[in-house]
Amino acid sequence: MAQHEKITIADLRVDEWNDWCPGCGDYGILSAVQMAMAETGKGINDYAIFSGIGCSGKTSDYINTFGVHNLHGRPIPHATGAKLANPNLEVIVIGGDGDLLSIGAGHFVSAGRRNVDITVIINDNGVYGLTKGQASPTLPRGTRTKALPLPNINDSLNPLALSLASGYTFVARGYAYDIKHLKGLILSAIKHKGSAIVDILQPCPTYNDINTKEYYDERVYKMDENEWDPVVKDPSEEREKFLKAMEKSVEWGDKIPIGIFYQNELVPTYEERLASRIKTYITAPPAKQEISYNGASSAEIKQLLQSRRVV
Amino acid sequence: MDLIWTTGGPQGSGIDTAAHIFTRAVAKAGYYVYGGREYFSNIKGRHSYLTMRISDTPVYSITEKKDMLVSYDAETVFSHFLDIAGSGALIYNTDESDFKLSSIPSMVSPLKVRIADSLGKAGSDITVKAVVEYLNSKGITTLGYSANDAVRELGRRLNESQLGKVRIMINTMAISLSTSILKIDKELVLEAIKDTFGTKSLAENQQAVNLSYEISSKWAWHGVTLNHMPVNGHRILIDGPMAVALGKLAGGLTFQSYYPISPATDESVYLEGHPTFSRNHSGEGNVVVVQTEDEISAIAMANGASLTGARSSTATSGPGFDLMTEGIGYAGMTEIPIVITDYMRGGPSTGLPTRNAQADLLQAVYGGHGEFPRIVFSSGDHIEAFYDAANAFNYAERYQMPVIHLVDKSIMSSYAIIDETLIDTEKCKINRGKIAVGKQDGYKRFQLTEDGVSPRSFLGSPNRFWLTGDEHDERGHILDDSVMRTEMYVKRMKKMELAEREIPESEKYLAYGSSSSRKIIVGWGSTKWPIIESINRLQKEGNEIGFIYFKMFSPFPKGVKRLLEGKEIIDIESNYLGQLGILLGNEISVNPSYHALKVNGRMVSASEVYTAIKLMVENGEKKVIMNGTA
Predict the structure, then answer these.
(1) A152 pLDDT exceeds 60?
(2) What is the pLDDT of residues B594-624, one digit of tens each?
(3) Given an 8 Å threshold on Cβ–Cβ distance, is B250 in contact with A301?
(4) pTM value?
(5) Is B389 within 8 Å of B368 (Cβ atoms)?
(6) Shortest distance, CA A146 to any CA of chain B (angstroms)
(7) How much is the ipTM here?
(8) Is residue B232 one of the residues assigned to a domain?
(9) Looking at the 3D structure of chain A, how many domains does it have?
């Protein structure tokens, strides 16, 4: 990895006017992400942020590092391609619950099966804000947020249970207005070896008049670190901790837990799986190969041709 | 020397392997072979067949009339006997002599009706025996053997009482009957078997081949034989996906993503199976192949990989190509170099998943919302496909845009014996285009430049950038400003003008035959060799006719207008609309007067193209529908 100086939060800020609504949870998430990025010890150029579409998608524009703003629903596969082509990158995906869990749900589930070493942050506010407040996949059935003509007809899905079922090896929930706690979760997610999910409860002050700051402030509580150990340290603990996390993930209502639900670094990452097939993958990943020599192709395919030799 | 040899059998019964062995044996005898495989969308049981053309000179097309039909099942006899040449031969299994056309369950009904109609009999009256009598009445040689007797005899010689274990060699035995009468040395067949299976069961196969040569020694065959010819250098057996895959490796591919789809999958599977290779002066090379959850993800992953500086691509077919459209537009908007190989199959919708078509051309050129720059080009044979697949990355990186490489399914599923030296990576030049090297103050990824191309930077490099599918400023930040919108739009689009200026004419189209003929043929992709062969044949008959073979469609080679203006244009394509003809009209205001079109999904043969040209040129027919099944 390249030499770099220690970075500060100020280094990660950009000189852009931020056009989120006043009081939007995205601000807290942006701050927590920047704070976590400054604490990992990595350089600015080591990061790549892949964001989705919608208000949260603009996050990549507001961080002073490589920022890739994607098609709706597609930040995970774009990020996966980049990470696998250059595994030295520190890749963070930021998308809304509609982006990642509705239009991008297929990618969300499949990423869990791969366990690529990336961090996925879900800005989870229950509504499609930028299109003026339609119900998103995490809004409960029967709920009528203020822009809905009728109460929501669909059931909501549980992002944590879905993450666990999909195979994510780090599953956490944070709260956009507890920035310090959230920063800790994001930092742990970045440091985690494998695919990490941080689902972030986030009010939309403009369109979600139900799951407001007041709503969450009353209900959210941090899981007690003395009683709750989500980390799988041995394969024998896998089943028990997975089931406990699943059970915990359905706790919702008067009390809403935040913190790390599950972490398992014993599952090989996709990069490790590739390296076991391709010995040179880590030393010569796709982005780092010298593909030409004297202006011509450096690939030597003679052996492949000879294996097809007939005469 | 020109011989058409066909074999068929139920899909999954080893017919493809048997044809491979035959091809290798013939190649070892010094001949070139080109062959197409036709198959249903099915795993086991439906009729699959291969038509191999054997020649003493390189050949890249097939013709319809079969000189030799090799079979062991009744369905193969029924399906193809009408195409046997007058001087040809049928090798058939006498055990199935009494099988009736009407009682073959795997045959599609309309085909049974057509065969019955052509003989003027009821399907229940048409047996293999009746077909043999019919062929004999036409002077066609019929050579029968009993597969059951052969299997029993082979079992006796191998001391194998479980005849099921012996029966799996029936394909090998059937093709050996044909190599025997073609006078190909038995040893070459055994070498071909060894090439295919290794030394496993070699002794058993040797006995099988010996028995076939004994059985056929009693047959009278007065047709063509394949006398051994000396071979200079080496020759290889190559198929379409392999040609493209090797071309991609030569072109610097290091990342490929795909979702399984017929007929594109073979290319990615080949790459996945050969992930490492050496690199001249830089140690080991490798390619990472990722099987994705869908084609949307496949194009997105390839885009993401490209942002790191890796040369990346994806391969798909029609329905998958549809799903990629948004991602291709994203690459156009964000100026990501990316290569998409589209193996064209019969559409629309699921269409004919395993059959040929050239109907994705207009989609490739115009598909997607909004407007974005792209290169669209195609290949006409395996060797072209190799070099084009390599060069596609140069186009992509030089012009920083998606490159769509169209490959006909019929090239994909064809085999060719070619001289090994024709595939030469040293001829594959690498041009990575403009790259910002070293730390550059005030670097702007989308800097407005004279030619529209801005120096690229890679994720992880010292020159940071933002990137968005929204309209953006020079740094890549989202920006909705009326003036910058126009400037950035023009910058993107004018790269097309640069590509049009820079790319040599020879990479866009090639002229064959007469340049002064009043009529001139246009075509592209897999019809290249059938058309070249037809105009050569017509020339020998005293009919001079020209052919413009198109390779590039976007940017459209406007310079071709001078060759087409004032001519009567004959458009030959495997689609209904005459899509190349539509492009000619749109781009250079030249419209075809004649069309020979084919939508039945089977590969275009040289003989049907010849016939179609004759109908247009001599009879003045404006539209000919080709319906060959060679």
Answers:
(1) yes
(2) 999 999 999 999 999 999 999 999 999 999 9
(3) yes
(4) 0.97
(5) no
(6) 29
(7) 0.98
(8) no
(9) 1
